[in-house]
Amino acid sequence: MGNDVSTATLICRETGDAAAIEAVGAVVIDDLCARPDQIGSHAADVDHLVLVLHRDRFALADVQTQCRAAGFDPLGVPILDYEDTSAATSSDVVLAAAAARAAAFGGSTPEESKPVFPQRMTRRSLLGFPRPEYVAVPSVDHETCVATDGCAACVAVCPRQAYSISGGRVVYDKATCEPCGVCVTACPTGAIRNPAVTPDQIRAQIEVLVSASPVPVGIAYVCRLGRPGAAAPGWYAVEVPCTGMTTATWLLAPLLLGASSTAALPCTAAGCTLGLDALAGKAVRFAQELLGTLGLDGGVVRASVDEEPAPHALAVAPLDDPFGVHGGPETILALAAAGAGPSIGAIDHDGSPVGVIEVDGAACTLCMSCVSICPTGALGHQEGDGELALTFDAALCTACGQCVPGCPELRRGAIRLHTRADPEALVAGRRTLYATETLRCESCGGSIAPTATMDRIGAMLGDEYGATLAYLKRFCMDCRGA
Fold first, then answer.
1. Pick from 80, 106, 132: which residue ends a domain?
2. Same domain? 320 vs 171
3. In a domain, 413, yes or no
């Protein structure tokens, strides 16, 4: 299973198994599903744990209790299905990748777990009162969250309305939440995390799946609530809370890490009740279109695993944080370098992980409300030489759209977000969207307001208040009436 001696892999062998999974360094235990109390004696003095159990033959609550008793955080223990693991192209690769994901687990807090009654029952559990099992749920880092500035991205995407804003602060209702992970990948600052599906864990698992396999590898994101059907040879599963959280970046980044194909499998038909297949489908379609536009094979990104992965992979590219908040620009530019280059033109698609802001100078007053709301710093301002400018850096835009509803001149069309992937804009750096002269006080020389702001005030006041407007343009607030 690799050289990580601090990880124990325990495999259940039940009566009737023709042969146990043979894996380097793994321990095969008779009837582990029925007797999880054996975990502690076989996993002493290790840091991480991976379990391979038979579907529907173990009580998760009991397994989690024994993991905790043995000193492991149950939310950080991958539990693989025996049949899926034995049917994989290489069980050694699967187990090594699971160990890497376990090693990348950063721990959880009590707030990041939720007791739920089991959705499936074993024969043993039918004889007694069902015990709750625990699932990982998100938490909000209020130091990183920018709800105080007006961001409400999590509120907009949550399918169960588990988020709300109160007093400029995000309020999360754990009881309402059915953890799907959409809030995690939608948060523009990375303030929301699910301890069981972090960018570090996803990357660690995928890198081992790719590097340890001697044949081309397909990476398929699968829902923890659904049961995917049989996959063609060469596909490896990466479990997420729901494939609705899978962004286009998550589909594209593995191609630059050495995978030859990727997929986000629809999960509603497989048993997931969240109904987020449209989100995964949107990400797949954008990824396909981007690759095709770049002169690469868009067919390597799929919504099924019925056929084997593509026979060849792209050249591996160095990526800093492909599954993090700003992985979109990094991934798109790396793919552009592998394909037709950054000057291919823009791709407008509602599945784009990046965006472009446009401003209409005839309507914008340079009030900078959009700047104060922008959670990533993509929108900014510069002042100098008597001029105020609204600026934009496409490489920082996550297309979250929070700036748009906060614009007081939205009805006049002052600002517009395009869910657009434009490699040329991503490398252009910060540019000016709109600039205007700043009026100076005749008395103290201080700034009064942008000309655009005063012109808008004049339009609202009307001609009968022309003298008042002229006075307002001459003096700042401190000097008026002095």
1. 106
2. yes
3. yes
**Interval 191-222: pLDDT, tens:** 999 999 999 999 999 999 999 988 899 999 99
Q: Could you tell me if 260 and 233 are in contact, meaning their C-beta atoms sit under 8 angstroms apart?
A: no
Let me know whether 193 and 319 are in one domain: yes
- CA 184 to chain CA centroid, Å, is 5
Beta-bridge partner residues of 350: none
CA distance 381 to 392: 8
Distance (Å, rounded) from C-alpha 197 to C-alpha 104?
Answer: 10
What is the C-alpha to C-alpha distance for residues 268 and 242, in angstroms, rounded to an integer?
10
Instruction: Give the pLDDT score at 125.
Output: 52
Closest CA relative to residue 214, chosen from 316, 307, 87, 92: 92
117 within a domain of the structure (yes/no): no
Q: At 208, which helix (H) or strand (E)?
A: helix 199-212
End of a domain among 307, 340, 373?
Answer: 340
The reply to whether 45 falls in a domain is yes
Report, in angstroms and rounded to the nearest whole number, the Rg of the chain calculated over CA atoms: 27
pLDDT < 50 regions, the chain: 1-4
Show the tokens assigned to 337.
């370098």
pLDDT over 90, % of the chain:
71
Distances (CA, A) of 113 to 39, 75, 108, 135, 139: 22, 8, 8, 6, 9
Burial class (CB in 10 A: 0-12, 13-18, 19+), 404: middle
Tokens for 78? 């991958």
Q: What amino acid is encoded at 450 in this protein?
A: P
At 431 the pLDDT is 96
Q: How many domains does the chain have?
A: 4
| 410 shares a domain with 301 | no
- Please give the residue range of the domain that contains residue 101: 1-106
Q: Could you tell me whether strands 218-223 and 261-264 are parallel, antiparallel, or unpaired per DSSP bridges?
A: parallel
Helices 248-256 and 327-338, packing angle to 10 deg: 50
Q: Are residues 214 and 326 in the same domain?
A: yes
Residues 154 and 251 in one domain: yes
The Cα–Cα gap between 22 and 427 comes to 49
Q: Is residue 115 domain-resident? A: no
Question: Containing H/E element for 66?
Answer: helix 60-69
| Alpha helices for 233-363 (secondary structure H) | 248-256, 277-293, 327-338
One domain, residues 240 and 379: no
Cα–Cα distance, 74 to 477 (Å, whole number) = 61
